[in-house]
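Continuing from the previous page of notes. For each protein in this section, the sequence appears first, followed by its structure tokens. Read the first protein now.
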Amino acid sequence: MNAFNLGDYVDVPTRLAQALKQFPDLRIQETKPIIVTVDNQQYVEISCTVWKDANDLLPTVAYCWEPIPGKSPFTKGSEMMNASTSCLGRALGFLGMGIGKSIASRNEVQARQPATVADVSPIRADLEQPFGDTTDTKQFASPKQRGMIRAKAFEKKIGTAELMPYINKLLKNEYSSIEALSKQEASQVIESLQN
């Protein structure tokens, strides 16, 4: 298997400098890191929002997971910082900063080298599939239900980092996002948040 040409990748500081040059009033907000577990592997999850200026009504949002513990001596102990940098690099890439053939940053590609061909496995069953699967009978929560959950949580002063633990405790489940909820589960969460 051929290695990627790392010369095509732009590091995050360079992307940020490009973004600040193009958008001098750029603002970035990062969420509090949370720990998620998938297939007995822990990850730190970071999301960040990038506004081009104070009037940006549609900011760019990116998410990133980094395995804990880190897989190399360079990532072990700095998993949150690596996730944070990768997340910002992705968000800036979504804005068109430093992308050519790939949105991945140089750091992300280097962290995954050398790679072997991975076994292909189905996407996790608890996540909504964007194009639907005709064999899946689960009716996922509607965008309106998901919006209602977020709005009611905001009214109850339940922050983003506390929302999924609240939902999982209520439903006795281990979902990683509200997109995984069924319509019935979403109704149950809305009812709980209204009381």
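Done with the first. The second protein uses the same format. Note its length before scrolling.
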Amino acid sequence: MTWWCAASPGSRPRPRWARLTSLLAGLGLGPKAAKTRIVHLTVEGEGFNFLGFHHRLVRARGRSGARRVTFLARWPSRQAAQHARDRIRELTDRSRLLAPVDQVVREVNGFLRGLAGYFRYGNSARQFDKISTFAVARLALFLAKRHKRSRAWGWRLVAYQAPDRLGLISLTGTVAAPRPIWGWRARPNTAGERRR
């Protein structure tokens, strides 16, 4: 677990740490020293990973003449992106060449939907583009090996000749960037009740 505060590197966050420790002790909890650290968030700083996301303080580019906004951005961490690539690689492995193509595509789609459902609230568009491209490349390689053809043949088949990429979904457009005025919690959930 990582506890962070937006303090300058020269400040002393110990009073906050003592207060947090006493608050957690009152709940019967305590931070584990090996997994807890204080990160000083600064623009272009290191940031921190928490629950699969990488959090970092960034400054938006903005249009010419517009005021630049600083905000806490989040996207899938390197470990989460590597896990996604490993899982796609596992689903399109050479050992599965006898499996029907539509079954492999369904399984990859199921994984991509789960990934998008978890990481879509944030600033994940760039990472999603990379993972989508990787999924297309792996499916192309899978088909090339299955038909004993070149990788370029598989890429042409998936990316250009098949109108819907053989049913493989795209993560483009699935990101919901967080905005302070956007009431995404006010939408009804699946049972029709309002979220609080």
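What the second structure shows: The radius of gyration is 22 Å. The chain has two domains: 3-75, 78-167. We return to this in next week's lecture.
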